[in-house]
Amino acid sequence: MKNLNSLYSELTLKTKSKLVLVVLDGVGDIATRSQGYLTPLEAASTPNLDALTQDAAQGRLTPVAPGITPGSGPGHLGLFGYDPLEFEVGRGVIEALGLGVELKAGDVCARANFATLDAKGIVTDRRAGRIPTETCEKLCAKLAAKIKKIGDTQVIIKAGKEHRFVVVFRGKGLEGPLTDADPNREGFAIPTVKPRDAKSAKQKKTAKLVADFYQAALPILAKEKPANGFLMRGIAHQPEIPSFEERYKLKAAALAVYPMYKGLSQLVGMAKIEGPQTIEEQFQRYLAEHDNYDFFFIHYKYTDKAGEDGNFEAKKKAIEDFDAALPILLEKRPDVLAITGDHSTPVAVHGHSWHPQPVLLTSKYSGSDKLDRFTETGANLGSLGLFDAKYLIRLMQANALMFDKFGA
Amino acid sequence: MKNLNSLYSELTLKTKSKLVLVVLDGVGDIATRSQGYLTPLEAASTPNLDALTQDAAQGRLTPVAPGITPGSGPGHLGLFGYDPLEFEVGRGVIEALGLGVELKAGDVCARANFATLDAKGIVTDRRAGRIPTETCEKLCAKLAAKIKKIGDTQVIIKAGKEHRFVVVFRGKGLEGPLTDADPNREGFAIPTVKPRDAKSAKQKKTAKLVADFYQAALPILAKEKPANGFLMRGIAHQPEIPSFEERYKLKAAALAVYPMYKGLSQLVGMAKIEGPQTIEEQFQRYLAEHDNYDFFFIHYKYTDKAGEDGNFEAKKKAIEDFDAALPILLEKRPDVLAITGDHSTPVAVHGHSWHPQPVLLTSKYSGSDKLDRFTETGANLGSLGLFDAKYLIRLMQANALMFDKFGA
Hints:
Chain A is α/β, with parallel strands linked by helices. Chain A folds into two domains: 14-87 and 241-399, Alkaline Phosphatase, subunit A; 93-237, Alpha-Beta Plaits (2-Layer Sandwich), CATH 3.30.70. The first copy, chain A, has helices at 4-11, 40-43, 47-53, 72-79, 91-98, 133-146, 201-221, 244-248, 259-267, 279-289, 302-308, 312-330, 376-379, 392-399, and strands at residues 19-24, 56-62, 108-117, 123-125, 149-150, 153-159, 164-170, 229-237, 252-255, 271-272, 295-300, 336-340, 357-363, 385-388. Chain A has an eight-stranded mixed sheet with strand order 10-9-11-1-12-13-2-14, sandwiched between helices. In chain A, helix 10 packs parallel to helix 12. Chain A is globular, with a radius of gyration of 23 Å. The A-B interface holds A 1-2, 4, 7-8, 11, 54-55, 364-370, 381-387, 391, 394-395, 397-398, 403-408 and B 29-33, 37, 39, 60, 64-74, 83-86, 88-89, 91, 94-95, 98, 234, 346, 348-349, 351-356, 376-377, 380-381, 385-386.
């Protein structure tokens, strides 16, 4: 049986096409009674998106598999064409990316919580009373000042919000995943981490490193109140992922505002374009960088944020703001433009969901589905049907005429 | 995990149903602005197809995988229910089939070009100035007269158009694929072919055979101008494919006009019905042969031809001609009738494409999708949805009540 990704690679031709993937984070939604059976996309006024649909195909993307709600990691990896079931990115890695740590291949990352321990080392509060962010930053700085290395391994400590922080171990021969240094409930001691794969010498070495880190760090926190301890979870290394350019023969750049999405795009080797803070600025920068790259990933966060807050009006407004900025992008209309989400974040769910997100694809060869608008209901009628998110880039490549014919 | 094809086989019942698969080659298209947002199927007047849709289900077929544009080989193998990623048919084989060579299992085929060599054997023109077809035929006859066998292996040489021809090696213990005897650009000598799999003794033997063929053939051409040499590519053997009858318990016949499609149907063991030259004659012959087979594959070429030419009016006309002939077929309405393409050949693309082709399926049990017409846009709304072409025959079998229930 021929491997499909190998086939795509064999057929790939280098072209001069420009491809743009716009991710409206969490844009997909559901129509419920309390929303008058309208989704935010349906309720929003989107004259520019509407105009695009005339020459576009639509469909819906299954982010991972039916019923699976993805985090931002699997959601974006899928959109970037990497099967999220094949390329797993540990939570520690995602958390580190989210805090803007620039990772290197092989780095082992852990998400950590400050916690409260009693005299016997029993966890009495897994979140140390949700200490303020400033306290967290102070404690992280203290740890970082005293622990720069453990043996030959560099230790990077970075504070997050409230009680959260991340620890990154950078050295040779390290590997995750490890079990958690977290009893997952109060009243128990912090368990010693173990290799997930008992046969892995690298995991064994990394588990020893984490134990040594605890040995060094706990005394430093001993007199702190209430954060005299900490838990570590999702301990994993940055996986080896074939680079985007290698896989697609496309030189890619990311225009993202939030560290998490910059980080995810860097995982697959996209160039990071720094500076833009608004979608208008992102589009302006696309115009400026147009000739420097073949592929642009443009990330827009606010649709997801409003969905997480369960705020229908805010989500509708975020879509309208995006629509208003769209003409800037279209000043240099890409050969292939796809607009979609990394998943749905329905207002009624107040969080990410499994509902397939709508996708719009426009190119000289997309054909027209003769739909008036880009909405979930419209996308149900489109020619692209329902398909796995990991194929979107392949369809974009096809639309850029980047694939030779298969067989005679 | 149960193997799906094994399951289908276990469940298959022999019935008296007649199943007909009509392939309107490349019928799928896209609606573009310059075509007034109509596809040829939409623009054509098709009263007979329209009447069929009342009692039909519709959907769209992914010929191979998202974004992959198939050649006729993978396109038809998929329609015949053989995964094109599992059953690869080399270009040499396809070319030989296209020229009407009747292949046997194990035959190794190569597509060949006459070329011009300088005194040192350097390729100076990979197409020998595109010599006229008559010259090609003359040279092939000359080679064929002098080289009938190499060792125990029979050699079959057949001329194609202009500089093109095919060479078939028929003997024991032969196998492809081999690397090409083609530098792929001018200014280089013809490389010696090598096994693709260095461990295959059969490929090694076949590579030696090709070298011996060159040794025998080049002196025969030495004084020709400009075709004093030749290149060989896509050297592969006819793969072993489980026969259609074995796989589906259906005795199948092919009603195709062009050699390529006769050949492809023979690859899976369909009977070849010779004679008919027009779609009317093909349908007439179906009526005459109705009782002799369970399954008919009827191939109609002209939709593809018009698409390749980028000729909207010709494609529309080809569809209308087909529609006008359809009542002949319906004189003995099959129990299950599927009408589709092997891929799309959009007018705007001037060639095969990746766009899923529409499919119409009508039987006593197809149900009605209550669509007025058979078009790409209509098919988007159908109950069959978007699915892989390799499952179409299974759906046809189900509609013929050829499958027992799975489990109690």
